[in-house]
Amino acid sequence: MVLALISVVEVCGDIGVLTPFSARKDCCGSSYNINLDSSNITSISSYPFGANLSAAMNPSGNLVAMGVGGGIRVYTFPSLTLTSEIKTKGVVLDLEFVGDYLFVANGLEGLLVYDLTTPSSPSLVYHYDSPGYARDVYINGSYLFLSDGEFGVKIFDITSPSSPVLVGSISTLGDANEVAVYTTYAFVSESYLGVGVYDITDVSSPVEVSRISGIGDAQAVHLDGYILYIAVGTSGLKVYDVSDPLSPAPVSSVSTSSKYTDVDKSSYIYAAGMAGGLDVINPYTMSIENNVSTRGTAYKISRAGSYLLVSEDMAGLEIYDITDPLNPSFVSFIESEGCFYDVKASGDKLFAASGGKGLKIFNYASPTPVKVAEVRGIKAFEVFLSGGYVFVAAGRLGGLKIYDTSSLSLVGEYDTPGSAEGVFVSGNYAFVADGLYGVRIVDISDPTNPTEVSYYDSPGEAHKVFVEGNLMYVADGSAGLRIVDITDITSPTEISYYDSPGNARGIYVSYPYAFLADGGGSGIRVIDVSDPFTPYEISQYTTPGEAKNVFVKGSYVFVADGVGGMRVLDISSLPTITEYGYYDTPWSTQNVFVDALNRIFTPDLSSGFFILSFSNFTSVSEISLPDFVSIGATRGGIMFGITSIVPGKANIKIYSTSGREVYRKTILLRKGFKTYTLEFSRKGVYIVKVSLPSGRVRTGTVIVR
């Protein structure tokens, strides 16, 4: 049968693993639990709105609360007029109404309660800073059960909804994901440790009495009388008879290739199947009798009377009418902001890459960023601002996009063969980190007609690229750091590499060091590249999360550390590295950028982006270029690519293989990079020696034909 949509609400981005049901995770699946905290870092402002991870309708049926990353948007229903916005400090993972009170499981921030008696001006009336990661709210009579991850389940008396009282706690064996209650027993889904069954006759002292194990990844639980439904990921749906809680008995199951992350039941069972959409299951035959193809990744369900609210991290919130339970009909859709991967600033404008929601532009003349425009229909993972243009790494189907920063009109585009994840502009060239297809080098001298001039086929997966002078540095995933000579832009040549122990995700070069964000728990690696032919590690710092990218200014290194937040490292005493400060963002920090005003911009994937500051910038100096010489033969001569730290005279001497000097010349160098060609027509093998103004000497061998 075909389901008819009535309406929808759209949300987050592109990763399909935003799961509040197991530990807080980033898009690579790594998890890390720390408190919402900061040290020596101050928040200036934020734009917290991102993924739609939860939704709820009030008992009167005239309000819909939509969790969007680090905030809540309240809409009147059915018109879906935006009534108010609430900014939180965590990630809104679950919402439940009790009368006019809205209960919020808010990740690192714990439990929040808002009074929505006046929907246009919600007021915070209660906050419980839970020790774990608040994921789910379940209300049973006058009790509220808060699933708090590794810290189990907190039990509150909400006889007075505006003043919850903590009365008990369930110490779970695994991370608590969701709770359902039958009589005096609580059933807690605990991922691969199954479902724990706890006697809560005395709520102040719950006791485990049995366990359902060996069923797969227990993410969500739902009770219909004494029948327990368990969403167990790719293992499908498991059904148990729990009339005897001490001995739960399996009844039936549904196998599916979709990942079931949530489940609810009226006369039919509704299972959120991630990319598989919404399955409608006959509870008697346990057969899938219908499937709703949702716009995004369906994983959270909230049922309110005859309506079903489906939260989707890839699209938003879809609302269905289930008056005909077998054939849900679409009612409406509310769109969210997307997943934020990068933010760059230019004056009072901010340019944000928001994955599948494209390029977003914010005005930052006031303390709070205000969205003023957006480019839809593309994916955006990194932006680079140069010469009045914004260059966008636009993923698998987009390649490189070029927009005018004033009009936001598309100026030019080049469809790379891989998945464009990073972009760096130097001079007339854009260097696109294109995943498994290495780095594509694109001539942008005419931005309306970008043309690929060459490429570097890296051995790993190119995530980010950084260019200094005639050297290109590539964060190449499992293949570590690759250093490439681009003196001849049409023929990039790898000259060396550093095989890092982790997964190289980001790179920043501040002579004489390359700073590598090495993912995989490997943190930041500091590599001496003063001689780019022989890079070597001089120091490293293990960050608490998953190092995604890095930015260097003065004596400080700024690390986008995934679930570890944004970390600031002091490198003034290398090889000693100390952590100067940090700011723990609510979800997973993806990138970091520091502008000329020392403002720190960091996107947090599902919960918007943050603008931060700290006042301890010292020794901020211009980034120096490394001395480097590449030597090669060309028709009728010898070609040099020279990058010099200081201006001055360079002495070039050419020797035969017997050691006899056959040619010498003095040239005047400017600071930076330039190519030179010497006319030299003697055929043979020669040794070339270049003495630079800095005192360094470079040698090479050429064959003149």
Summarize the SSE layout with pairings.
Elements: E1 7-10, E2 38-39, E3 42-47, E4 49-57, E5 63-69, E6 71-76, E7 82-87, E8 94-98, E9 101-105, E10 111-115, E11 123-128, E12 136-140, E13 143-147, E14 153-157, E15 165-170, E16 178-182, E17 185-189, E18 195-199, E19 207-212, E20 220-224, E21 227-231, E22 237-241, E23 249-254, E24 262-265, E25 269-272, E26 278-281, E27 288-292, E28 298-304, E29 307-312, E30 316-321, E31 329-335, E32 342-346, E33 349-353, E34 359-363, E35 370-375, E36 382-386, E37 389-393, H1 395-398, E38 400-404, E39 410-414, E40 422-426, E41 429-433, E42 439-443, E43 451-456, E44 464-468, E45 471-475, E46 481-485, E47 493-498, E48 506-510, E49 513-517, E50 524-528, E51 536-541, E52 549-553, E53 556-560, E54 566-573, E55 576-583, E56 593-594, E57 600-603, E58 609-613, E59 628-634, E60 637-644, E61 648-656, E62 661-669, E63 672-679, E64 684-691, E65 697-704
Report on the structure:
1% of the residues lie in helices and 52% in strands. It is an all-beta fold. Among the domains are: 342-556, Methylamine Dehydrogenase, Chain H; 628-704, Sandwich (Immunoglobulin-like). Strands 1, 28, 29, 30 and 31 form a 5-stranded mixed sheet that branches. Strands 2-55-54-53-52 form a 5-stranded antiparallel sheet, with no helix packed on it. A 4-stranded antiparallel sheet has the order 3-58-57-56, with no helix packed on it. The chain is elongated, with a radius of gyration of 29 Å. The model is unreliable at 1-35 and 619-624 (pLDDT under 50).
